[in-house]
Amino acid sequence: MPATKIHLVRHGEVHNPDRVLYGRLPGFGLSELGTRMAQASATAWKDAGIDVRAIVASPLQRTQESAAPWAAAYGLDVRIDERLIEPTNRYEGQPPGFTKRSVRRPSEWPWIANPWRPSWGEAYESIANRMLAAVSTAWESVDEGDVVLVSHQLPIWMVHRRLAGEPLWHDPRKRRCDLSSITTLVRTPDRSAGRFTEVGYADPAAELRASAIDEGAV
User: Fold this and answer.
1) How far apart are CA 99 and CA 111, in angstroms?
2) Which of 48, 52, 187, 194 has the lowest CB atom count within 10 Å?
């Protein structure tokens, strides 16, 4: 038998004092608060008796650090899946307001030409496809129990919108994927279709987020 459920976990708050878009840039680990957020999520699931049999994470530092409390709680190693990584973004390293600045920079106009794709980074369609491929692999990676996938806000939100049948383009300010939140999926009865359904959303670190400074990548 394959897995019972897949849990998509977003990383905790990142130490980002300059408030830049960090994307795939190296050196962006969790803040002290972010570490507590990650611990809160892992503890919530462990205390609830959820049977996690595998933990898989994006290769970036903040997701590896967010996966560590899960690994400790369940006595498991963290596997890496490149498909869970943050999307590419031309604005990496820049502070907020980068798209408005591009309006005044003709050389950057191609970056903002198509916000529905989007033209400044990896296409939404590509993100959704690789994420769902990673979900399918995770589903078949265990004989029973659940699998935790630690990823990033936009990739998780692309899974949500694809499974909900919604357009992938969206307003980033309206994503329901908070720091250290958990989005849960199950496979539909018709396994031949390779379809998944979202069945839950939990926010174990909600109380900690009141003091968060960095909300993560855009």
Assistant:
1) 8
2) 48
Decide: pTM greater than 0.85. yes
Give the residue-averaged pLDDT of 47-70: 98
Give helix 124-139 / helix 153-164 axis angle, nearest 10°: 90
Ordered strands of the 146-151 beta sheet: 78-80, 52-57, 146-151, 6-10, 182-187, 196-202
- What's the chain's length in residues? 218
d(CA 173, CA 28): 22
pLDDT at 218 over 70: no
- Residue 45 pLDDT > 80, yes or no? yes
How do strand 196-202 and strand 182-187 relate by DSSP bridges?
Answer: antiparallel
Tokens 């980074």 locate to: 121
Q: Look at 195 and 63; give whichever has higher pLDDT.
A: 63
Q: Would you state the structure tokens that stand for residue 180, as one six-digit string?
A: 């250290």
| pLDDT tens-digit series, residues 163-175 | 999 999 998 889 9
Residue located via tokens 């300010």: 173
H runs (alpha helix) in 52-152? 61-74, 98-103, 124-139
Q: Which helix (H) or strand (E) holds 40?
A: helix 32-47
